Amino acid sequence: MSNPGHLTLAKGRWGTFSLSEQLGNIGSEIERAIKWEKRGDTEHRAKALERSMELLNLTLADPRWKKCRRYELARVREVVSDTFYGGNTYGSSPESIARYFFPFACAARA
Prior knowledge:
Radius of gyration: 13 Å
Distance between the termini: 32 Å
Oligomer: single chain
Structural class: mainly alpha
Strand content: under 5%
Number of helices: 5
Mean pLDDT: 90
Number of strands: 0
Largest sheet: none
């Protein structure tokens, strides 16, 4: 990550967020990507997906999350990548990915 778009987050602020807050923020970027895709704006879609992957990588690098959580986080990153960039081996849809993240955003707001 030589030029992260979320510089203040990468410098440590991300590590102050709860797991729900982190995943809720990732989900927000996924929602933005879906919105831009529906509008046919591939440039903004790509940027939102790039930010979501960047945030996923920051979450994976967070030392607070133990091995079992890292395993799930790595799987989430794999499925997100497969859905938006790969051959959709897992048969996920952008909407199903957004549904995965939604409860985390709700929990973070509670």
